[in-house]
Specification:
Layout (H helix, E strand, L loop, with lengths): L11 H7 L6 H12 L3 H10 L14 H13 L5 H10 L1 H7 L10 H10 L2 H17 L8 E9 L7 H17 L14 E5 L2 E13 L5 E8 L8 H7 L9 E4 L6 H9 L3 E4 L11 H11 L4 H13 L9 H28 L6
Parallel strand pairs: 1-5, 5-6
Antiparallel strand pairs: 1-3, 2-3, 3-4
Length: 358
């Protein structure tokens, strides 16, 4: 079977269309970010786990790194569906050049892109993200200067259900799974989300727990849970997942939602400075010193709000695309990779040209 091979020699059509390249900011951005990242290590990781293309018979498969690049395009340009991504690749020369597809060839079908997510597990994507952070560190970006942790609500991709209805459908699904009578469906009710309240408004969905390096602003980890899970329950897990070097993190910042003795003791035991904001206790009000300390911490941990804000505005990240934690979590890792690539690239451009407008 193997993978599709594309000739390096340009066809007549390629030569004619290539004359238009470089005439737009999109083309320039994709060309430069393509050269900015080393893709070969990603390809090696994907080939280790990607089951397609290894059979001796059958049609040739698309190279997995091509499909990964297509999903990065989806994040950078706010494309909300796989069929629309397929259409955009077919319509845009710059997209085809970026993923390495000849101009005369059609885009990978949206079903191929969808199956790619299922076939490449989250562990492989985490390995690719770690490799990306290693590359960015070699370019001078910090990934262990200190950490800021926070969480945001992600509204469900499907219509909300009552608590009783959720319980009923979960039990029905578990019974069918045990009996082996469950049938796969293209879209199903979101039974892995649940209810919580934010600012006195009920919200049905999930929660993304994330961390960033406070110096570079690069996102170091992302984890999905049900919306009802308290932020503090994921604090220690997120901190551990954020360690991509052998160096212990010097300090961890977080808002009042993570206030509590267990988290402070965790930082103390692991010799990390406590940057968790304090809040009023039942029997003790904040002192002036603690109020001043909270204000200083808020000036450091704002960078994680940039990640939440940018991805919500340009990628619709405040609402889930999928109805399971596993699929949505996979998609969030891809989102983080796209964010880190673009942020580091633009940061490098600013250093090279300080007057450049972003």
């Amino acid at each position: 079977m193997g993978f599709k091979e594309y000739e390096r020699n340009m066809s007549f059509l390629d030569l004619e269309l290539s004359k238009t390249l470089g005439s737009s900011r999109t083309q320039k951005f994709l060309k430069e970010i393509h050269d900015y990242i080393r893709w070969e290590p990603f390809q090696r990781i994907l080939l280790d786990v990607y089951p397609v293309g290894k059979a001796a018979v059958g049609n040739s498969a698309y190279p997995p790194v091509m499909l990964l690049k297509a999903l990065l395009l989806q994040k950078w340009f706010g494309i909300r569906s796989d069929p629309e991504l397929e259409n955009q690749i077919n319509d845009r020369i710059s997209f085809k050049v970026f993923i390495g597809l000849p101009f005369g060839d059609p885009s990978p079908d949206h079903s191929v892109i969808s199956r790619f997510r299922d076939r490449v597990g989250a562990k492989a994507m985490e390995r690719i993200h770690t490799e990306l952070l290693s590359q960015l560190r070699a370019k001078g970006f910090s990934i262990d200067a200190g950490l800021a942790v926070d969480a945001r609500l992600v509204r469900s991709a499907s219509s909300p259900l009552s608590k009783d209805k959720i319980k009923e459908k979960r039990e029905e699904k578990e019974r069918k799974d045990r009996e082996g009578t469950g049938k796969p469906v293209k879209f199903s009710r979101d039974l892995e989300s649940d209810w919580t309240v934010k600012n006195d408004v009920p919200v049905y969905g999930m929660k993304e727990h994330a961390s960033i390096d406070v110096k570079s602003g690069l996102v170091l980890s992302t984890v999905l849970s049900r919306a009802s899970e308290h932020d503090t329950n994921y604090f220690q897990f997120v901190v551990i997942k954020s360690m991509h070097t052998r160096r212990m993190l010097p300090v961890v910042y977080a808002d009042k939602g993570y206030h509590g003795q267990p988290n402070r003791e965790f930082l103390h035991i692991n010799e990390m400075k406590d940057g968790i904001m304090r809040k009023d206790e039942r029997n003790a009000k904040l002192t002036e010193l603690e109020i001043t300390r909270n204000k200083k911490i808020s000036k450091v941990r704002y960078k994680i709000e940039q990640y939440f804000g940018v991805t919500a505005l340009h990628q619709g990240a405040s609402r889930a695309r999928f109805t399971t934690l596993a699929k949505e979590g996979w998609d969030r890792i891809c989102q983080v990779m796209a964010f880190n690539m673009k942020r580091s690239y633009l940061s490098g451009m600013r250093k090279a040209s300080p007057v450049m407008a972003i």
